[in-house]
Amino acid sequence: MGRPPKKPIAVSMGEPAGIGPDLVLLAWANRKALHLPPFYVRGDKALLASRAHAIGLNIRLEDVSPDQAGAHFSKSLPIVQTGPALVDRPGVEQAETASSVIAFIEGCVEDIRGGLASGLVTNPINKAALYRTGFSYPGHTEFLGALAGKHWPGAPAKPVMMIAGPDLMVVPVTIHIPIKDVPAALTEDLIVETGEITAHDLQTRFGFSNPRLAICGLNPHAGEDGTIGTEDRDVIAPAVARLKAAGIAATGPHSADTLFHPPARKAYDCVLGMYHDQVLIPAKTIGFDEGVNVTLGLPFVRTSPDHGTAYGLAGSGTARIDSFSAAVRLADVLANPDQV
Ligand SMILES: NC(=O)C1=CN([C@@H]2O[C@H](COP(=O)(O)OP(=O)(O)OC[C@H]3O[C@@H](n4cnc5c(N)ncnc54)[C@H](O)[C@@H]3O)[C@@H](O)[C@H]2O)C=CC1
Ligand SMILES: NCC(=O)COP(=O)(O)O
């Protein structure tokens, strides 16, 4: 007996005024050249039709249910209509689309839970626009952690953000918080938990037998023995010691400024940074086009392009699809480890 066909990847359309709609259309149009597995979009068909016209793509869009998506993918872009029809205004924020944006994500997670999709790829959302309508999660990462807790009760669901590129993988220990709040948020337990989840997922999902984690300091020169800030000595160093005691190949705290040049990158598999920009700046500088945002620590697979909504490019047809395509391929590999 042959293997059953792979389930499709569920893709959320993301911010309607951003480049998410362009990306799904361009990716489907170039699916063969990009070696993309079957996927479907939870979004709005009317808006996608309008955007396809704007960027000069004459492609078939099919309104389907998730269980039919795989069968349609070779001939048309399968769309699971989610929410009301939207008006296509590229680059223009509209408060009334916020509930649809959230419903796209929730619907995809429910599809995975229901066995209809193998993994999730999210398109970028306008975070500030969602906050303005009362959305209480800083980003997808935290929202997906909450959805995992709701739909997989009892399963471990501490979401950890990783930006993975061919030349660098990084994890920010604190994510979407103001820089002034970082020192207080950094605890030994948080660093240890993040390191353990990272090491576990690099082993079980990414095939590293003994992943080497380089842990950044917080202060210049990792604090110079507590003379330029005490967090490196009093919080981060003990956390590194605990990770080592747990059998994880962790080193640090390292001075972050000298951790990302090519020879330094040979000494580790992944960097844990203490705050968002400490590690996302090098990751996006080195591999903006190929980078993929992966959420570790969830009971399901979620990836995303590493960029945002790029309002200025929406509807122009010029948005690069490399990162989105890499996100779809990686979701497929992670969700179907025995079939690639
Ligand atoms: N995963 C998510 O949902 C993310 C959402 N965002 C959201 O994106 C919005 C804009 O954030 P920014 O910091 O301006 O980042 P951005 O990534 O949208 O744009 C930064 C620069 O990169 C360019 N760019 C982005 N994607 C591109 C692509 N595919 N092809 C070619 N050029 C591209 C843009 O034109 C711009 O010059 C914010 O509302 C933020 O909340 C940002 C990052 C991730
Ligand atoms: N800068 C990366 C980013 O903000 C991604 O956030 P999320 O929406 O994936 O949590």
Bound molecules: 1,4-dihydronicotinamide adenine dinucleotide, the ligand NCC(=O)COP(=O)(O)O
User: How many domain regions?
Assistant: 2
Rg from Cα: 20 Å
CATH superfamily of the largest domain: Isopropylmalate Dehydrogenase
Q: Could you please say which CATH topology of the largest domain applies here?
A: Isopropylmalate Dehydrogenase
Element string (H = helix, E = strand): EHEHEHEHEHHEEHHEHEHEHEEH
CATH architecture of the largest domain: 3-Layer(aba) Sandwich
Largest sheet: 12 strands, mixed
Strand order of the largest sheet: 3-4-2-1-5-12-11-6-7-10-8-9
Strand percentage lies at 15-25%
| CATH class categorisation of the largest domain | Alpha Beta
Q: Round the mean pLDDT to the nearest integer and report it.
A: 96
Estimated helix fraction: 25-40%
GO molecular function, one term: 4-hydroxythreonine-4-phosphate dehydrogenase activity
Binding site for a divalent metal cation: 176, 221, 276
Organism: Roseibium marinum
Pfam families: PdxA (PF04166)
Per-chain topology:
Layout: E1 9-12, H1 20-29, E2 39-43, H2 45-54, E3 61-63, H3 66-72, E4 77-81, H4 98-113, E5 119-122, H5 127-132, H6 140-151, E6 160-164, E7 169-172, H7 182-185, H8 188-204, E8 212-216, H9 231-245, E9 249-254, H10 262-265, E10 270-273, H11 276-287, E11 292-296, E12 302-305, H12 322-335
Parallel strand pairs: 1-2, 1-5, 2-4, 3-4, 5-12, 7-10, 8-9, 8-10
Antiparallel strand pairs: 6-7, 6-11, 11-12
Helix pairs in contact: 4-6, 8-9
Bound molecules: 1,4-dihydronicotinamide adenine dinucleotide (NAI) and the ligand NCC(=O)COP(=O)(O)O.
Residues 19, 124-128, 140, 293, 304, 307-310, 312-313, 319-320 line the site of 1,4-dihydronicotinamide adenine dinucleotide (NAI).
